[in-house]
Specification:
Length: 58
């Protein structure tokens, strides 16, 4: 019964296993890029905040 279910899942799959693995790597890469972008935005906001504080002090 499990073999029949596995066969149905594989026949309904659009991508091959290799393509699935490549897609997973691509998604991981995008997630990593997004996290780095968020971190850089936070740093940029902190830099701008410090700059504005410095301007307001003078």
């Amino acid at each position: 019964m499990a073999d029949k279910k596995d066969l149905q899942n594989t026949t309904q799959s659009i991508l091959t296993e290799e393509q699935e693995a490549l897609l997973d790597l691509y998604i991981q890469s995008l997630d990593s890029f997004r996290e780095e972008l968020r971190a850089s935005e936070k740093i940029q906001v902190e830099i701008e905040t410090q700059h504005l504080k410095k301007i307001l002090r003078t």
